[in-house]
Amino acid sequence: MATAVVQRSAPVAFEGHKLGFTKDVKIEDNSGSRIDPEVIDWLQPISKDATDEELREQYERDGVLFVKGVMPRERVLAMRKKYFEYVSSSGVLKEGTDPVDGIFCGGDPHKYAGPGVASHLGVTPEECEFLAKSITAHQEDFVKGFAKDENIMLMVKRIKPDWEEPILFKRQLLRSNMPNSEGTATKVHFDQIFLRAAPPTSLTAWVPIGDIPPESGGLIYLESSVPLGLKIENEFTKINSKSSDEERLSAFNVNMMDRGNLSRDCGKFSKENPNSSNVNKPRKWLIANYEAGDVVFHHPFMVHASGVNRDPLNRIRLATDLRFADKMVPYDHRWANKYWTPGDGL
């Protein structure tokens, strides 16, 4: 008989920013270090039932909008179950468990490297069935249908009412982070680094596919960092001014750091880039208790990363990145017109 593992909420100490307790939260970054609790705070959530004005005001002020309950929870969990059923032949799931729980089989997590990290680890689809299945999943109807969820597009239109014809880019990335997989957390970056073929006209929707408590590797956001991202990109633009068009647009050109990323060490990056209103005060990394149905929308210059997945129930962290733009203004066509494939240079 299959062992049922219930998708549970985070422990009480993690249930909301108002409760505090950041000193008890252990978030590890890609450098292998724990982020200093002194530079951690809670990402402010907002209800999908907030007014359009409230949504836009918070997005414009913070550069990030953490919206609770955008999608029906049941729909998100159905997607999670379908995905893990799709990749289950690879042996990634613990035997006898329900696919919706996504319980890792154990062993070396690097042998189950997924999109976004496999190339860093030198893992190829030919030697990793999980990676191969994860790649083909991007063109399956159940994945494409999930990305086109009407609730997400409605929220995009509410955040960007001036967009004449909002479109969803074809290219998305299903990211699966195995528990205790060292060196595979998302490094510090902002999205415009990878979308340089157009001005910063896009909007990202990060969709957790399942519950992701703070210790389980969800996205973390550097507070008030849109101006910082813009400043950094302007510096890269100057450095790359004499490069070829291809090099200038590439996130992986010779002048970039660590494959387009800004740092592996979130704590160090925070302290090296203090709050603009108080140079003696480091910017804080904002964490959250993400639940199935939540969606986070962020600005192309918003600096973010993720923690290492230390899920106490050994659950695989699954999420997808969706990007939107207005078809009537310049946007990065490299992302809009093709599905993700390994080594596509984006």
From TrEMBL:
SUPFAM superfamilies membership: Clavaminate synthase-like
Protein name: Phytanoyl-CoA dioxygenase
UniProt xrefs under Gene3D superfamilies: q2cbj1_9rhob like domain (2.60.120.620)
Superkingdom assignment: Eukaryota
UniProt cross-references to InterPro entries, sorted A to Z: Phytyl_CoA_dOase-like
Organism: Kwoniella dendrophila CBS 6074
